[in-house]
Design a protein that fits this description.
alpha/beta, 391 residues, Rossmann fold, 2 domains, elongated, 15 helices, 17% strand, eight-stranded mixed β-sheet
C-alpha cells in the first residue's frame, strides 16, 4: 500500500535537516521541492526561504540542535517547524515553544502521523508581522590591544567592560567581543561559554542582523553579553573579513557600549575595526621591549588610520617602588615619547583569584587597586565621551 502524501505540499519548498529524512521524498513529501541541509541553514531563515522545516532531532548533538532551533526563534517570521525524533533535549523543546508554528513528533512514527502533523502546521494561520524594532543609538566602541603577548590586555578589556556595566541600568547594554578568534581567553576569564560558532557566522554573514546576532551571544550578567569563539587554530581562516565587520556593525546597533579585545597581530579587518572605534587603548608592561613595542604599535595605528585619532597607552602592572629594575612612569613616558593615559597597579593575588575562580577582578576582589585604577580610567573616558556627544 503506498504511503500517504500531502497534496498541499506539491510544488512547495521543504527544508529537511538531517540525512535520514531524505527518504520521505518517495512518500509523504512526494511532489514537494526538497532542500537537504544542515543546521547552519537555519540562521536567518525567513518565510520566503521555505514553506516548511523538518528537523531530525536524532541526527545532531544536543548542543548543536539547541543552537539551531534557537536561531529560528531569532528569525523574522520563520516557516512552520516540525521536529521529529526519539530524544528531544529540554533546551530544544523550550525554544520550540517560542515559535508561533511548531510541533514535535516522537519517534517511531508512522506516515499517517507525519502527514497529520504537517497538515496541522500548514493549516495554522501565518502570524501577523512584528512591529519594526526601535532605532538604537550607535554604540560607543573601545578597542583594547596588547603591545606584546602577556601584557594583560584581555584582563583589562574584561575589567573595562565590567566597569561600564556598573554605570548602566538597562539590560544588555554592554558587549565584550573577543576578536582573538584562535586562542581568546575572555570567556575563560569570565567563567563563561564561548558561543560564537565561526562556521555558522561565515555562512550567515550576508543575513546577519541585530536579532540574529543574539544566537551567537553568551549572556554573562544582566548588563553584559560576550561574543567569543571556542579555541580553534584555524579560526582566522574559517571566517572572512566581511563577516567580522558585519558582526561588529550589528553589535554597535544592539548595545550602548562595545569593548573589543583585539588581536595583537594585524588582520585584514583590523584597521577597519579600529577605525570605527571611539578609543584605541594599547596595553604595555613596564619593560623596555614592551614600551618600545607600544610606541611602535601606537605610531603604526595612528599613521595607518589617518583620522587624527591617537591611541592611548595604558601602563599595566605598575608597582609602587623607590628602587628596582622596572622603569618608573616618568622613565616609561620618555621611552614612549608620549604621555601614558593611565597606570594600572600590580596586584598579582587579585588577578590570580579572578582567573582561577572565573569572573572579573571586581567581583572577587572589589577593593583591589586594579579595580580602582580601571574604574577611574573608565569614568574619565566615559565622561569625555559624554561631553563629546553633547557637543
Amino acid at each position: 500500500m503506498p504511503s500517504p502524501s500531502i497534496p498541499s505540499l506539491t510544488g512547495r519548498r521543504v527544508l529537511i535537516v538531517g540525512p535520514a529524512l531524505a527518504a520521505l521524498a518517495q512518500g509523504p513529501l512526494a511532489g514537494a521541492v526538497l532542500e537537504q541541509t544542515g543546521l547552519e541553514r537555519l540562521i536567518g531563515i525567513g518565510r520566503g526561504d521555505a514553506d516548511l522545516i523538518l528537523i531530525d532531532a536524532d541526527a545532531f548533538p544536543p548542543p548543536s540542535l539547541a543552537a539551531g532551533v534557537q536561531a529560528l526563534t531569532l528569525a523574522q517570521n520563520p516557516p512552520p517547524v516540525l521536529v521529529v525524533g526519539a530524544h528531544l533535549p529540554a533546551a530544544v523543546a523550550r525554544n520550540l515553544l517560542r515559535l508561533d508554528r511548531s510541533d514535535i513528533l516522537d519517534a517511531p512514527y508512522g506516515a499517517d502521523a507525519l502527514v497529520a502533523a504537517i497538515e496541522g502546521l500548514l493549516a495554522q494561520p501565518e502570524p501577523a508581522a512584528a512591529a519594526p524594532p526601535q532605532a538604537h543609538d550607535v554604540a560607543r566602541c573601545w578597542a583594547v590591544t596588547g603591545a606584546v603577548g602577556g601584557s594583560g590586555a584581555s584582563t583589562i578589556a574584561v575589567e573595562i567592560a565590567t566597569q561600564l556595566c556598573s554605570r548602566q541600568t538597562k539590560e544588555k547594554s554592554v558587549c565584550l567581543i573577543d576578536l582573538n578568534l584562535a586562542d581568546g581567553s575572555a570567556s575563560a576569564y569570565l567563567g563563561a561559554t564561548a558561543s560564537l560558532r565561526l562556521g555558522e557566522l561565515a555562512a550567515a554573514a550576508d543575513k546577519l542582523d541585530p536579532a540574529m546576532l543574539q544566537a551567537f551571544v553568551t549572556p554573562v550578567t544582566k548588563q553584559l553579553d560576550l561574543l567569543a569563539a571556542p579555541r580553534d587554530p584555524a579560526a582566522f581562516e574559517t571566517v572572512g573579513r566581511e563577516a567580522i565587520l558585519r558582526l561588529l556593525e550589528c553589535a554597535c546597533e544592539s548595545y550602548d557600549w562595545v569593548v573589543l579585545d583585539m588581536p595583537r597581530h594585524r588582520r585584514n579587518w583590523s584597521l577597519e575595526a579600529l577605525g570605527g572605534c571611539d578609543e584605541v587603548l594599547v596595553v604595555s608592561e613596564l619593560t623596555v621591549p614592551a614600551l618600545l613595542a607600544a610606541r611602535s604599535l601606537s605610531d603604526e595605528i595612528e599613521r595607518d588610520l589617518g583620522n587624527g585619532r591617537k591611541p592611548r597607552i595604558l601602563l599595566n602592572r605598575v608597582a609602587s617602588r623607590m628602587f628596582g629594575p622596572a622603569p618608573s612612569t616618568a622613565e616609561a613616558e620618555r621611552a614612549l615619547q608620549r604621555k601614558a593615559e593611565a597606570g594600572i597597579s600590580s596586584d598579582w593575588e587579585a588577578a590570580a583569584a579572578s582567573v582561577n575562580l572565573g569572573g572579573p577582578i571586581s567581583t572577587h576582589r572589589p577593593k583591589s587597586k586594579i579595580v580602582k585604577d580601571i574604574q577611574a580610567l573608565v569614568e574619565r573616558l566615559a565622561s569625555e565621551a559624554q561631553t563629546a556627544k553633547v557637543a
